[in-house]
Design the sequence.
């Protein structure tokens, strides 16, 4: 495999130094010379350079000033400064600001500068590979993200069709024995929730914040009306109380995602034989925060799982355990609006989730 030749730009106002440098290193490297900062800038505009070596003491512009002037436009070449002892303070400041990789005393030693060039190129090459890998990783992530979102959307139509067919089959079945259909429906409903959560996660992760003032009572009513389409919701006694003393400005779509997922969990995680399933929502808003508490009398969560339930694909041992995505989506949505969530739960007694949503727009 052919090794890339190191391309070095050497800037010095002393012609003898330029000629000596080229004579020493032209066999091993591609050498570009410049007698001033302006000439050096022209070379950078025309050539791909790996390593820049520049003298500190030059008329018109010092080496440190030159490196500072090119840092934004040409950040990738590794920079080496040639300097004397009297310029040491400028060198220290340049190193601290990340403008130079290292400095070499003048008059320079050919062996030392040769090693410095080789080391500088290795840094350049390593950073280049890292940039390439980051670009490939970003591309792969975006392609995977698009695929998951597209696949989730494509799955919604057949899921809706299956649920429709099940509904017709139950209506036409006169035997009254719908157990198998109910089992199928329950499984397909779980798939529907999973697909919806993937779509919600994508929207929350990819869309910018859209800040609006939230009417929590209207929002909660809309969500519960939609949930009443679910058979499980019809078996739950739903109550709420809202005290809105301040106007909360935040991203309503992410608050909606949070309420939907927490309410779905509160509805579904009950024992099948529970005589009275309850879900209560309490919301209190002042000018600083909206405090949201969702309480159920369901199956509860073991304390050892409190830290795990917000991880992607974590599923509890209960038979009604979902896909393990819902609470992860909640956590990521709340992170976008600087909100927090806490859980308190007892097995067989129920769970309480407390969400604090800050007023992002209060300083506007």
Sequence:
């Amino acid at each position: 495999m052919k090794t890339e030749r190191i391309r070095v730009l050497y800037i010095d106002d002393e012609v003898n130094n330029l000629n000596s440098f080229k004579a020493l290193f032209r066999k091993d490297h591609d050498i570009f010379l410049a007698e001033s900062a302006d000439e050096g800038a022209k070379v950078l505009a025309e050539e791909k350079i790996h390593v820049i070596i520049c003298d500190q003491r030059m008329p018109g512009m010092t080496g440190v000033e030159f490196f500072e002037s090119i840092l934004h436009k040409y950040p990738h070449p590794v920079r080496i400064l040639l300097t004397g002892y009297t310029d040491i303070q400028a060198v220290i400041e340049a190193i601290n600001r990340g403008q130079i990789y290292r400095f070499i005393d003048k008059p320079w030693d050919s062996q030392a500068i040769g090693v410095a060039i080789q080391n500088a190129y290795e840094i350049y090459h390593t950073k280049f590979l890292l940039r390439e890998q980051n670009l490939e990783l970003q591309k792969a992530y975006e392609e995977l993200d698009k695929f998951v979102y597209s696949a989730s959307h494509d799955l919604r139509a057949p899921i809706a069709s299956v649920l429709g067919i099940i509904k017709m089959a139950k209506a036409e079945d006169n035997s009254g024995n719908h157990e198998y259909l109910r089992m199928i429906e329950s499984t397909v409903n779980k798939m529907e929730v999973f697909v919806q959560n993937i779509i919600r996660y994508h929207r929350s992760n990819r869309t910018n914040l859209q800040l609006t003032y939230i009417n929590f009572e209207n929002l909660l009513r809309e969500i519960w009306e939609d949930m009443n389409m679910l058979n499980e919701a019809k078996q739950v006694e739903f109550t709420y109380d809202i005290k809105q003393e301040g106007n909360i400005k935040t991203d309503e779509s992410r608050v909606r995602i949070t309420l939907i997922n927490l309410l779905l969990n509160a509805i579904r995680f009950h024992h099948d034989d529970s005589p009275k399933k309850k879900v209560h929502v309490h919301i209190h808003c002042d000018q600083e925060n909206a405090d949201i508490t969702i309480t159920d009398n369901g199956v509860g969560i073991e304390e050892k799982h409190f830290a795990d339930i917000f991880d992607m694909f974590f599923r509890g041992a209960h038979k009604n355990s979902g896909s393990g995505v819902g609470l992860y989506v909640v956590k990521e949505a709340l992170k976008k609006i600087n909100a927090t969530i806490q859980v308190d739960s007892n097995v067989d007694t129920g769970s309480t989730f407390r969400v604090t949503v800050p007023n992002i727009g209060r300083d506007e």
